[in-house]
Structures are given as structure tokens and as C-alpha cells.
Design brief:
The protein has ten helices and 17 strands. The chain is an alpha/beta fold. The protein has two domains: 129 residues, Rossmann fold, CATH 3.40.50; 188 residues, Dihydrodipicolinate Reductase, domain 2 (2-Layer Sandwich), CATH 3.30.360.10. Strand 4, helix 4 and strand 5 form a beta-alpha-beta unit. It starts with 8 loop residues before the first strand and ends in a 5-residue tail after the last strand. It binds nicotinamide-adenine-dinucleotide.
Length: 379
């Protein structure tokens, strides 16, 4: 991959200014004050679905220019990194155009609407030699890195089980309208948030090779748009439960659920080993629970995030003051900028996100066929 380290600034083109667009923009703003970077990001162009929306987004988020034409953003010579935060079905055409223009591509999850599309994007990026990064930001949490260190160092013995869940309540009201999240192609709880717990499972334990899943639609229909009395059937899952077998032979279970009343951000796991266990929930993202004691000393103890868990110390020199969701995006953007400068890898890249999408698709197929299926390993 090409090195870009001779430049002192890097031009950012951001597509979309919704929930994630704001999060990306704020991360590009904050990162230089927190990390020692070889280059400073400059917010050059913001694109949205209309000129009016782009103008408003650029003004609010501090971009020099605004456009309703994302292709013009990609073609702009001032743009070095294209950040894609548009709905999922637009990721492929936007990413392929950015790759063809030789730009670094920072794309939100899920990478695309199908595994085949995600693979097309992966191959195009690898052939062009451009840096890619996908927004599985929860993996940037230093508590996650600590959990992986503990597992890989054998501190909880041989791994015997994984239980993972991503449960939120944002679709628990049957009157919440359709959006790109319920698109028949590529939508559903499993693609939207199940992709996060799959990426986490892969990060901690390794590849998932077999799945047996049940994808369920709880609410038969939803309003076609906010405020409408017209309703349209829902054809995607509201909740998926899956048994999974990892490459190591470890058996696990995963749940993706966007209708989980009472839960706001239970992206959580428990990893069990022969001598201990680790447990985490994003609802308490500054804590990792570790059990290693024996006999009368058995039981979980809480490890609280602090400067010993890099890069926490870049945000705050004192333990217990806590990182937040947006800080994970800043860490992700710091990793992206370093990869852009050096031409190095930025994990999770398109290839890893394609593997996640393959796992999503294997679960959907398993549910339809009502049997265990292998996650296709072919590339
Ligand atoms: N990593 C995470 O934690 C996380 C969280 C939420 C969403 N996401 C992902 O981010 C992406 C966007 O989700 P969101 O919640 O920000 O959605 P959103 O609806 O809030 O924002 C989408 C933005 O894209 C814009 N857009 C739509 N069509 C466009 C077009 N043709 N050209 C340019 N802009 C266009 C919309 O106007 C809007 O500004 C999705 O892929 C989603 O899965 C990731």
C-alpha cells in the first residue's frame, strides 16, 4: 500500500451527516488534540442527499464545502480519505468509486447488503492497494483489548465457551417506522447489530465456521414512514438466536435483538475457560469482569478502565473517569490516520468485514433451511 507520510495534512470527505456522520466528523475534529499523528485531518467536503442537507451538515460539522453529489466529493483532489456513513445499500457504489480514485476508504458497518457485494468491495480494494477500515468501533475499547490479552495469555485456561449478545430496544415499538434498517435486502437486527457481536466474537475467539440460527420477525408490519398510517410488512428479523462453532472447536451462542425492551446497549459477552472467565457489557463499557479465583476465592472481580489500558491515558490521566462511545470512534480514526500515513493495515478492514457478513448470511440461510450450515470459507 502506498505511503502518504510526506504530507502534513489529510483531506477528509464525509458522506452522510446523520447519527454516524456526526460521530465521524467529531472524531476527525478531536483526534489531533489527543493522539500524536503524522498528519492533521482537514474537513474538506461533506455530501448529503440534498444540497440543503449538505449545507446544514457542513456548517454544523465544520466542513469547507458541501455537495449533493457524492461522486464529486470522491473526485475532489482535496479529499484523501472518503468516510461513508450513508445507508447500507449505498456503501458498495460509493466505496468502489473511492477505490477507483485511489482514496483511503473508511466505511460504516455492515460493509454492504450481501456477502457477495462485500467481497467485490474487498477484492477491488486489495487490487488497488488502498487502505480500508470498517466502523466496528466497539473493538477499539481498551477493555476489549484487555479481554483478548487475558484470553490469549491463557489466564482463564483453555476456552470452553462463548456467549454473546447485542440487545437494544430501538425497534421495540411496533409503530417505529421502516428505514434502511428494515430493507428486505441487507436489513434486520442480525445485519444491523448482530454484525457487531459477530465481529467481537471473531476478535476474541477467532473465526466462526458453523452456525445454526433462528431469525424471527416479532412485528408483522410497521408504518411506511414516520407519521404515516399506511403500514408495510416487515420481512427482516427483529431477533436472531444462533448456536455457533468456532474454528478452535469452541461452542458458543449469539443473540441479535433490536426489540429488547429494557436494554439500551447490551453488546455483551462472557467467555468461559477451564480456570476462569471474563465478562463485559457495553452498557458498562469501562469495566471488565474477571474471574480467576479458586474454591472460596472464586467469583468475578471488576477491573475499571484507567491509564494502564492504552489509549485511555490519551484521554485522561486518572482512572475511573471513563471513556464514552464517541471516544471509541476517535481511537478508530487515529488508527485509520496512522494506516493512511504509513500504508499499513487498519483492522477491521474490508476483508474482515466481509467475513462478518458471510457469517450473517450463513445464519440467515441456516434459519431458512432449519439446519446447521458451514460459513463459506471460499474467497
Ligand atoms: N458503528 C456504529 O456504531 C454505527 C451506529 C449507527 C449506524 N451505523 C451505520 O452507519 C450508517 C448510517 O447510519 P446512521 O444511523 O448514521 O443513519 P442516518 O439515517 O442517521 O444517516 C444517514 C445519512 O446518509 C445520508 N444520505 C442518504 N442518502 C444519501 C445519498 N444518496 N448521498 C449522500 N448522503 C446520503 C442521509 O441524508 C443521512 O445524513 C449505516 O451503515 C449504519 O449501519 C454504525
Amino acid at each position: 500500500m502506498a505511503q502518504n507520510s510526506s504530507k502534513t495534512s489529510v483531506g477528509i470527505g464525509l458522506i452522510g451527516s446523520g447519527f454516524m456522520g456526526r460521530c465521524h466528523a467529531n472524531a476527525f475534529t478531536a483526534v489531533a488534540g489527543l493522539f500524536d499523528l503524522p498528519m492533521t485531518p482537514v474537513k474538506q467536503v461533506l455530501a448529503d442527499h440534498s444540497q440543503e442537507a449538505a449545507n446544514a451538515g457542513a456548517r454544523a460539522l465544520g466542513f469547507a464545502q458541501a455537495t449533493a453529489d457524492w461522486e464529486a466529493l470522491i473526485a475532489d483532489k482535496a479529499v484523501d480519505i472518503v468516510a461513508i456513513t450513508a445507508p447500507n445499500a449505498l456503501h458498495e457504489p460509493m466505496a468502489l468509486a473511492a477505490i477507483a480514485a485511489g482514496k483511503t476508504v473508511y466505511c460504516e458497518k455492515p460493509l454492504s447488503t450481501t456477502a457477495a457485494s462485500a467481497l467485490t468491495m474487498t477484492k477491488a480494494a486489495e487490487e488497488a492497494g488502498v487502505v480500508t477500515c470498517v466502523g466496528f468501533n466497539f473493538l477499539r475499547n481498551p477493555m476489549l483489548r484487555l479481554a483478548r490479552e487475558i484470553i490469549q495469555a491463557g489466564e482463564i485456561g483453555e476456552i470452553t465457551g462463548f456467549r454473546g449478545r447485542h440487545a437494544e430496544n430501538y425497534m421495540s415499538d411496533p409503530d417505529t417506522p421502516h428505514s434502511f434498517r428494515t430493507d428486505p435486502e441487507g436489513g434486520g437486527a442480525l445485519a444491523d447489530i448482530g454484525s457487531h457481536i459477530i465481529s467481537m466474537a471473531r476478535f476474541l475467539i477467532g473465526p466462526i465456521v458453523e452456525v445454526s440460527a433462528d431469525c424471527q420477525t416479532i412485528f408483522a408490519d410497521r408504518p411506511v414512514r414516520a407519521g404515516s398510517t399506511q403500514r408495510r410488512p416487515v420481512v427482516v428479523d427483529d431477533v436472531t438466536h444462533a448456536l455457533v462453532r468456532f474454528d478452535s472447536g469452541v461452542l458458543g451462542s449469539l443473540e441479535a435483538n433490536w426489540a429488547a425492551t429494557g436494554r439500551t446497549m447490551d453488546l455483551s459477552f462472557e467467555v468461559t475457560g477451564t480456570r476462569g472467565a471474563v465478562a463485559f457489557s457495553q452498557e458498562r463499557m469501562n469495566e471488565l469482569h474477571l474471574h480467576t479465583g479458586q474454591g472460596g476465592r472464586a467469583g468475578y472481580r471488576r477491573i475499571e478502565a484507567g491509564p494502564d489500558h492504552e489509549p485511555y491515558g490519551r484521554f485522561c490521566p486518572a482512572a475511573g473517569h471513563h471513556l464514552g462511545f464517541n471516544d471509541l470512534k476517535i481511537i478508530e480514526v487515529a488508527d485509520l490516520l496512522m494506516a493512511h500515513a504509513t500504508g499499513g493495515a487498519c483492522s477491521p478492514d474490508f476483508r474482515e468485514a466481509w467475513r462478518v457478513q458471510q457469517t450473517v448470511e450463513a445464519m440467515q440461510a441456516s434459519s431458512q433451511e432449519r439446519r446447521w450450515l458451514s460459513v463459506d470459507k471460499a474467497s
